[in-house]
Amino acid sequence: MLREVDPEIATLIQAEEHRQARKLRMIASENDVSAAVLEATGSVLTNKYSEGYPGKRYYEGQQVIDQVELLAQDRAKALFGVDHANVQPYSGSPANLAVYLAFLQPGDTVMGMSLPMGGHLTHGWSVSATGRWFRSVQYEVRKDTGRVDMDDVRALALAERPKVIFCGGTAIPRTIDFPAFADIAREVDALLVADIAHIAGLVAGGAHPSPVGHAPVITTTTHKTLRGPRGAMILTDAAHAKAIDRAVFPGLQGGPHNHTTAAIAVALKEASQPEFRDYAHMIVKNAQALAEALLERGFDLVSGGTDNHLVLIDLTSKLIGGKPAAQALDRAGIELNYNAVPFDTRKPFDPSGIRLGTPGVTTRGLRPEQMPLIADWMDRAIAAHDNDQALDLIAAEVEELLGSL
């Protein structure tokens, strides 16, 4: 039907499907959803408008939609062990904006991890609305370890007295110390918000400690390691539920995307199965095996390795910037992104590092014994970054491996 109506878009979708199939997709925030999640995402639920919440809608005809959203809520609460789940945020950034609207006034102080150190734009970084409309203070990692020093975080919190503290981020390869953050938040009377967008699937699968019981408010996307559609959730204790719901609707957005809500429900059901726990732990095993293989080939890893799904590489010693390295690797069949590293001296659009992750390749069926091969391809590609013939040869080897799975 699509090809008959719009052959150009149909051709582009087919091209993207082919591209994804023949590449090692190692962008840490990407994954492959199941056929069931994909089917729900493309369902007739996209036709229905549903401002409000189950049982309290502004439009009629919600008999089915209410059941869908309640299922998603109940599955989220059961999977993560929380009192309340709002499954309506359109994506991770609006979910974080809802936190500001619910608990802060413009000009209030918010504390988050500095973006160049691994934090997220919406944790108060200067180019974000969160950094322009609120007073933002940022903690960093130690230069000698590449890790967060909780004594430094405590000292900053005591000096600045933020109303909200964010923990979590977008390029953090180490375990987040939720109990330590919770102690600091209590000491300065701040609300602790855990942004687990990257690690939600690991938390659900028991491969990373949970923030539940430490952070009263938890935000997350529903893709990445959770392997669902592009959406978001906010998980809270009972005391913070009403404020969050009001902030999401009517505070920030109108009707939820019901087809996404259904796909989130499907992904949460999949994440509750025993095999998902195996998957989550395999993500970490693959990342650690890859990190070890990269270290053996002379790569400098931020913090020296990884505890989760993500590896952050400083390419300074390789005498190449992150952007040309990422472009060469893409031609070689290895898709990742260029990324700033802590204390980077290069510009954001041409930083010193690259970021990669193992959720997608783990979904494709790769295992730790294949990680040294990926590290070898990366080493060869970066060394031959200006040699298209050499890069195309690696891409053919990558495609051969993926075709054998």
From TrEMBL:
<dbReference type="GO" id="GO:0042803">
    <property type="term" value="F:protein homodimerization activity"/>
</dbReference>
<comment type="pathway">
    <text>One-carbon metabolism; tetrahydrofolate interconversion.</text>
</comment>
<feature type="site" description="Plays an important role in substrate specificity">
    <location>
        <position position="223"/>
    </location>
</feature>
<keyword id="KW-0663">Pyridoxal phosphate</keyword>
<dbReference type="InterPro" id="IPR049943">
    <property type="entry name" value="Ser_HO-MeTrfase-like"/>
</dbReference>
<comment type="function">
    <text>Catalyzes the reversible interconversion of serine and glycine with tetrahydrofolate (THF) serving as the one-carbon carrier. This reaction serves as the major source of one-carbon groups required for the biosynthesis of purines, thymidylate, methionine, and other important biomolecules. Also exhibits THF-independent aldolase activity toward beta-hydroxyamino acids, producing glycine and aldehydes, via a retro-aldol mechanism. Thus, is able to catalyze the cleavage of L-allo-threonine.</text>
</comment>
<dbReference type="GO" id="GO:0008168">
    <property type="term" value="F:methyltransferase activity"/>
</dbReference>
<dbReference type="GO" id="GO:0035999">
    <property type="term" value="P:tetrahydrofolate interconversion"/>
</dbReference>
<feature type="binding site">
    <location>
        <begin position="119"/>
        <end position="121"/>
    </location>
    <ligand>
        <name>(6S)-5,6,7,8-tetrahydrofolate</name>
    </ligand>
</feature>
<dbReference type="GO" id="GO:0032259">
    <property type="term" value="P:methylation"/>
</dbReference>
<keyword id="KW-0028">Amino-acid biosynthesis</keyword>
<dbReference type="GO" id="GO:0005829">
    <property type="term" value="C:cytosol"/>
</dbReference>
<dbReference type="GO" id="GO:0004372">
    <property type="term" value="F:glycine hydroxymethyltransferase activity"/>
</dbReference>
<dbReference type="InterPro" id="IPR015421">
    <property type="entry name" value="PyrdxlP-dep_Trfase_major"/>
</dbReference>
<feature type="domain" description="Serine hydroxymethyltransferase-like">
    <location>
        <begin position="2"/>
        <end position="378"/>
    </location>
</feature>
<comment type="similarity">
    <text>Belongs to the SHMT family.</text>
</comment>
<dbReference type="Pfam" id="PF00464">
    <property type="entry name" value="SHMT"/>
</dbReference>
<keyword id="KW-0963">Cytoplasm</keyword>
<dbReference type="InterPro" id="IPR001085">
    <property type="entry name" value="Ser_HO-MeTrfase"/>
</dbReference>
<feature type="modified residue" description="N6-(pyridoxal phosphate)lysine">
    <location>
        <position position="224"/>
    </location>
</feature>
<keyword id="KW-0554">One-carbon metabolism</keyword>
<dbReference type="GO" id="GO:0030170">
    <property type="term" value="F:pyridoxal phosphate binding"/>
</dbReference>
<keyword id="KW-0489">Methyltransferase</keyword>
<dbReference type="InterPro" id="IPR015422">
    <property type="entry name" value="PyrdxlP-dep_Trfase_small"/>
</dbReference>
<dbReference type="InterPro" id="IPR039429">
    <property type="entry name" value="SHMT-like_dom"/>
</dbReference>
<protein>
    <recommendedName>
        <fullName>Serine hydroxymethyltransferase</fullName>
        <ecNumber>2.1.2.1</ecNumber>
    </recommendedName>
</protein>
<comment type="subunit">
    <text>Homodimer.</text>
</comment>
<keyword id="KW-0808">Transferase</keyword>
<dbReference type="GO" id="GO:0019264">
    <property type="term" value="P:glycine biosynthetic process from serine"/>
</dbReference>
<comment type="pathway">
    <text>Amino-acid biosynthesis; glycine biosynthesis; glycine from L-serine: step 1/1.</text>
</comment>
<feature type="binding site">
    <location>
        <position position="115"/>
    </location>
    <ligand>
        <name>(6S)-5,6,7,8-tetrahydrofolate</name>
    </ligand>
</feature>
<dbReference type="InterPro" id="IPR015424">
    <property type="entry name" value="PyrdxlP-dep_Trfase"/>
</dbReference>
